[in-house]
Design a protein that fits this description.
Layout lengths: L16 E2 L8 H5 L4 E3 L5 E3 L6 H13 L5 E2 L5 H4 L4 E4 L2 E3 L13 E3 L6 E3 L6 H9 L5 E3 L9 H8 L2 E5 L9 E3 L3 E4 L2 E5 L8 E5 L3 E5 L3 E2 L5 E2 L9 H10 L7 E4 L5 E2 L2 H15 L1
Parallel strand pairs: 8-9, 9-10, 10-11, 15-18
Antiparallel strand pairs: 1-4, 2-3, 5-6, 6-7, 7-8, 12-13, 13-14, 14-15, 16-17, 18-19
This protein binds iron/sulfur cluster.
Iron/sulfur cluster (SF4) binds next to α1.
């Protein structure tokens, strides 16, 4: 539970606040961007108190989704807890309920006619498990890399989903181990992007949505970036993996950490090219 005595000084006055235990995972800023901002150190803070009920609802979704319980509010988040996953666009939903064991990585739920897909593992919170069951369950759990597996075993036990991960990142005994690029379902392609880890993979859906794990993300200003300071395997390989993404079309970048980005496909390509030039 967030603690008032640890309340960050940057918070706008009012009942909603972030305390100093925030680990800068971006979950709240993605769920309720109108309410949460970034301090100069990267931690989240309440930019402005929610002005109406719909903003409050999104803020309370962030309260239950914060992996470190760093967001406090006087009102109950019980109703908002049942909203998740929330639709982002078309078949794509944000799960919320980030897990501290994956450093608060964001995860996504994809509704598919041939079986729903979870992209990286959220916390196996009871309200989320119930909602996912109502939405048809989970047939596949795609794991972008070894760091964001969180509660994979609980999802496997609850839904019988097959866990899919690259063999070089498989420390969980996954049902499907990837070795190269592969279509894992109709219109759903796993693309190896080694760099952050040896077995990192992106997932491209319907040539529109690219789930990038910790390979690629956007910042608060909408600029794409990659992190050398969090590159555990090979920075030169990670840059090559970025260049390979130019072979594909997509207009969404949906990361585990950092901000998502939505641009028309020619603009997205320009942004990837720009980043590639910048990194040299
Ligand atoms: S959701 Fe993440 S960024 Fe937001 S307060 Fe919690 S730890 Fe910080």
């Amino acid at each position: 539970m967030a603690q008032l005595n640890l309340r960050l000084p940057e918070n706008a006055p009012g009942e909603l606040f972030v305390d100093e235990t925030c680990i800068d995972c971006d979950t709240c800023r993605e769920l309720a961007p109108e309410t949460f901002g970034s301090t100069s150190s990267g931690q989240a803070y309440v930019l402005r108190q929610p002005p109406d009920e719909s903003s409050w609802r999104r803020a309370l979704q962030a309260v239950v989704s914060c992996p470190t319980a760093s967001i406090g509010a006087e009102r109950s988040a019980k109703e908002a807890a049942r909203d998740l996953p929330v639709q982002l666009e078309g078949p794509v939903y944000r799960c919320g309920y980030s897990a501290e064991s994956s450093y608060g990585a964001q995860s996504y739920f994809l509704r598919r006619d041939d079986g729903n897909i979870l992209v990286d593992s959220p916390r196996a919170a009871a309200p989320l498990l119930k909602r996912l069951a109502e939405m048809g369950g989970v047939r596949r759990l795609f794991l972008t890399h070894q760091d964001d597996v969180a509660d994979h075993a609980e999802f496997r036990a609850r839904f019988g989903c097959e866990r899919i991960i690259h063999r070089d990142d498989d420390h969980i005994g996954a049902e499907v181990r990837l070795e190269g690029e592969r279509e894992i379902a109709a219109g759903v392609r796993a693309i190896p992007v080694p760099g952050h880890t040896r077995g990192s993979c992106a997932l491209l859906v319907d040539e529109r949505y690219l789930f990038t794990g910790d390979h690629l993300w956007a910042d608060d200003r909408g600029q794409l970036g990659m992190g050398r300071g969090v590159c555990w395997y090979s920075w030169s390989e990670q840059k090559k993996s970025l260049a390979r993404l130019l072979e594909y079309r997509f207009d969404w970048v949906l990361p585990g950490h950092g901000r998502s980005l939505h641009l028309a496909q020619p603009r997205m390509r320009e942004e990837v090219e720009k980043l590639h030039r910048r990194l040299g």
